[in-house]
Amino acid sequence: MLTSEQRLSAIQRLGRALADPTRCRLLLALLDGPAYPAQLADQLGLTRQNVSNHLACLRECGLVSTAAHGRQTSYTLVDDSLRHALDDLLRVVWGVAAEHVPPGEAEPVVTG
């Protein structure tokens, strides 16, 4: 069981990761499976350096891990429990957002 200090540290790391839109986009892209920084940069329309910097942050936060493949390194979500947690979080937030759409207005579109 985690102590209250460990739980606080974990939530703060998650908050740091989710506080930046680029890191959020990277986490959503990694929901589809492992990827290389160059792939992610092309997919998201970002520079490779920008992607590498944000992936380093996500790694420091404990949310992504790496695997060496020759001279290249792929990134993936740290484990399936994080994938499920992100999916659950999206469902919760989407459900709340959908409940608060005024009548006659279109619901927000989720991409990623």
From TrEMBL:
<dbReference type="GO" id="GO:0032791">
    <property type="term" value="F:lead ion binding"/>
</dbReference>
<dbReference type="InterPro" id="IPR036388">
    <property type="entry name" value="WH-like_DNA-bd_sf"/>
</dbReference>
<dbReference type="InterPro" id="IPR011991">
    <property type="entry name" value="ArsR-like_HTH"/>
</dbReference>
<dbReference type="InterPro" id="IPR001845">
    <property type="entry name" value="HTH_ArsR_DNA-bd_dom"/>
</dbReference>
<dbReference type="GO" id="GO:0046686">
    <property type="term" value="P:response to cadmium ion"/>
</dbReference>
<dbReference type="InterPro" id="IPR052543">
    <property type="entry name" value="HTH_Metal-responsive_Reg"/>
</dbReference>
<protein>
    <submittedName>
        <fullName>HTH-type transcriptional regulator CmtR</fullName>
    </submittedName>
</protein>
<dbReference type="InterPro" id="IPR036390">
    <property type="entry name" value="WH_DNA-bd_sf"/>
</dbReference>
<dbReference type="GO" id="GO:0097063">
    <property type="term" value="F:cadmium ion sensor activity"/>
</dbReference>
<feature type="domain" description="HTH arsR-type">
    <location>
        <begin position="3"/>
        <end position="97"/>
    </location>
</feature>
<dbReference type="GO" id="GO:0003700">
    <property type="term" value="F:DNA-binding transcription factor activity"/>
</dbReference>
<dbReference type="Pfam" id="PF01022">
    <property type="entry name" value="HTH_5"/>
</dbReference>
<dbReference type="GO" id="GO:0010288">
    <property type="term" value="P:response to lead ion"/>
</dbReference>
<dbReference type="GO" id="GO:0003677">
    <property type="term" value="F:DNA binding"/>
</dbReference>
